[in-house]
Amino acid sequence: MVLPVFYGIFAGTGGAVPTAGFVAGGGSPGQSVVDKFAFSDDSRTTLGTGLTTGNSQFAGMANSAVAGYFAGGEDASAGGRTARVDKFAFADDSRTTLGTGLSATTYNQAAAANSGVAGYSAGGNANPGGDVTTIDKFAFSDDSRTTLGTGLSVGTPYLAGAANSGTAAYYGGGYAGGEIATVYKFAFPGDGRTTLGTGLSSARYGLGGMANSGTAAYFGGGDASGLVDTVDKFAFSDDSRTTLGTGLSAARRYLAGMANSGTAGYYGGGYTTTGVATVDKFAFPGDGRTTLGTGLSTARFAPAAMANSGVL
């Protein structure tokens, strides 16, 4: 599963609130834990208030410098999928739950955001309804939800999301009768959809997405009829794809991505033969990989992630 994605991550520097990435939930059954990684030194703390309930297979997105959101998923307490959206204010990491959640109970979706404007939750599997093309849009001004007139071209769960804030959101990979390599692009502010001429380097699902806003999107890991460590990079200047010479530290699927835009991107958790606690860090702009000495607080797969990168 995704994340959405996210799995889309948003950008910037500065701001009064210290910048940090957040990795939430994951596992089977899902956990409610939210791990916070301070971007100043990559140290980890765990929030005193986690998700509303244990959750996995969901998506994260952020209004950088303001708040992050975790949407949908496999709700451990309810024994099924949820439409809930939890919101964490970056000023104090306090949690509220939006009065309006997703348009359907959905899991295995991806998320991305146009920071300062809106967040988007795309695709997944709805209950009832099966695989969906739906993209729900949440306006950051008041957290109200609308649904885009044009969604994905085919119902797709297990995809990943990333965003070039102010310009476009990207959704890549997933599963639609088989692994797919498609990368969709939704241009801001009109949200019109195109499909990139060059997709992923291999068709795969269960990958993670993150972005160095203004520069490039990254889609890492996943399953292409076997686990992969590949990280594909899409330059925002022309949407061309390259593949990093150094991929993940281990091939895995169901991982989550987040980024401190302008500085580094992170992939946390995932599944090899079991859940893992590993957090890999890719330094921008050279994309060199290191692995954090402190990983997640518990080994787990299918978490969601988002980040406060400061004011854009």
Description:
- The protein is 0% helix and 41% strand.
- It has a single domain, classed as Neuraminidase (6 Propeller), CATH 2.120.10.80.
- A four-stranded antiparallel sheet has the order 4-3-2-31, with no helix packed on it. Strands 6-7-10-11 form a four-stranded antiparallel sheet, with no helix packed on it.
- It has no helices and 31 strands.
- Mean pLDDT is 93; it is low at 1-15.
- The protein has 312 residues and is mostly beta strands.
Number of helices, where a helix is a run of at least 4 consecutive DSSP H or I residues: 0
CATH architecture: 6 Propeller
Q: How many E strands?
A: 31
The CATH C-level class name: Mainly Beta
Q: Briefly note the CATH topology name.
A: Neuraminidase
Report the uncertain regions. Answer: 1-15
Radius of gyration (Å):
16 Å
- Overall tally of structural domains: 1
Shape: globular
Topology:
Blueprint: E1 3-7, E2 20-24, E3 34-38, E4 44-46, E5 55-56, E6 59-63, E7 67-71, E8 74-75, E9 80-81, E10 85-89, E11 95-97, E12 106-107, E13 110-114, E14 118-122, E15 125-126, E16 130-131, E17 135-139, E18 145-147, E19 160-164, E20 168-172, E21 183-187, E22 192-195, E23 208-212, E24 216-220, E25 231-235, E26 241-243, E27 256-260, E28 264-268, E29 279-283, E30 288-291, E31 304-308
Antiparallel strand pairs: 2-3, 2-31, 3-4, 5-8, 6-7, 7-10, 8-9, 10-11, 12-15, 13-14, 14-17, 15-16, 17-18, 19-20, 20-21, 21-22, 23-24, 24-25, 25-26, 27-28, 28-29, 29-30
Keywords, please?
four-stranded antiparallel β-sheet, Neuraminidase, 31 strands, 312 residues, mainly beta
Brief characterization of the structure:
With 312 residues, the protein is mainly β.
